[in-house]
């Protein structure tokens, strides 16, 4: 069954904001034969770069499917060498499409760092993630791959993977911290509803 991905090439896609039900749905597998898949991927890249993101998942552009894109190379380029050596761990970043991904393992080693989300603008939070992650997926050429990623790149992948699972980075907060932020979340919903 095709998901009707056919859309105009080079089109900015609307980003679903916090409170949109689609952000809480687990995505369904992508039909690799869908004729509009490559256009959707190109439009996701264009949308992500337009809003200065480093990753974007299909549910964030109102497609409840298992697809996301990550580009950690600009983050790598913006860092000083000493910081790069720590958070990239020898990696130089990636630009990659992840179709129907499955995380097969996560390291026990964790680390804390700031995260933001294009669907929750204006909020960054310190979140714990696994240092490394192994993932099986199809790339943009529809080749099946299995790779292990480290540091910042692994963090970005885990963040986007959560989106296709219907999870947000806010879910890592305890109930007390979520309550403290509730007013800010309500303001995002009000601003979005009023078109601000």
TrEMBL record:
Its EC number is 3.5.1.88. Its cofactor is Fe(2+). Binds 1 Fe(2+) ion. The active site is at residue 160. GO terms for molecular function: metal ion binding; peptide deformylase activity. Fe cation binds at residues 117, 159, 163. It is an enzyme of class 3 (hydrolase). Pfam families: Pep_deformylase (PF01327). The keyword Iron applies. It comes from the Bacteria. Keywords: Hydrolase, Iron, Metal-binding, Protein biosynthesis. Gene3D superfamilies: Peptide deformylase. One of its GO terms (biological process) is translation. It catalyses: N-terminal N-formyl-L-methionyl-[peptide] + H2O = N-terminal L-methionyl-[peptide] + formate. The keyword Metal-binding applies. Belongs to the polypeptide deformylase family. Removes the formyl group from the N-terminal Met of newly synthesized proteins. Requires at least a dipeptide for an efficient rate of reaction. N-terminal L-methionine is a prerequisite for activity but the enzyme has broad specificity at other positions. This is Peptide deformylase. It comes from Dyadobacter soli.
């Amino acid at each position: 069954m095709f998901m009707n991905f056919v859309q105009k090439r080079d089109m900015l896609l609307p980003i679903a904001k916090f409170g949109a039900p689609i952000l809480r749905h687990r995505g369904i597998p992508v039909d690799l034969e869908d004729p509009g898949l490559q256009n959707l991927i190109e439009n996701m890249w264009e949308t992500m770069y337009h809003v200065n993101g480093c990753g974007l998942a299909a549910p964030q552009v109102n497609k409840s499917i298992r697809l996301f894109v990550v580009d950690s190379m600009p983050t790598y380029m913006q860092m000083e060498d000493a910081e790069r050596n720590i958070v990239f761990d020898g990696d130089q970043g990636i630009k990659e499409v992840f179709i129907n991904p499955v995380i097969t393992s996560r390291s026990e080693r964790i680390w804390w760092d700031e995260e933001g989300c294009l669907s929750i603008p204006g909020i960054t939070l310190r979140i714990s993630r696994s240092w490394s992650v192994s993932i099986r997926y199809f790339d943009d050429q529809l080749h099946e791959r299995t790779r292990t990623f480290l540091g910042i790149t692994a963090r970005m992948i885990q963040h986007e993977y959560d989106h296709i699972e219907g999870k947000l980075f806010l879910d890592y907060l305890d109930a007390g911290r979520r309550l403290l932020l509730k007013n800010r979340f309500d303001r995002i919903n009000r601003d979005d509803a009023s078109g601000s």
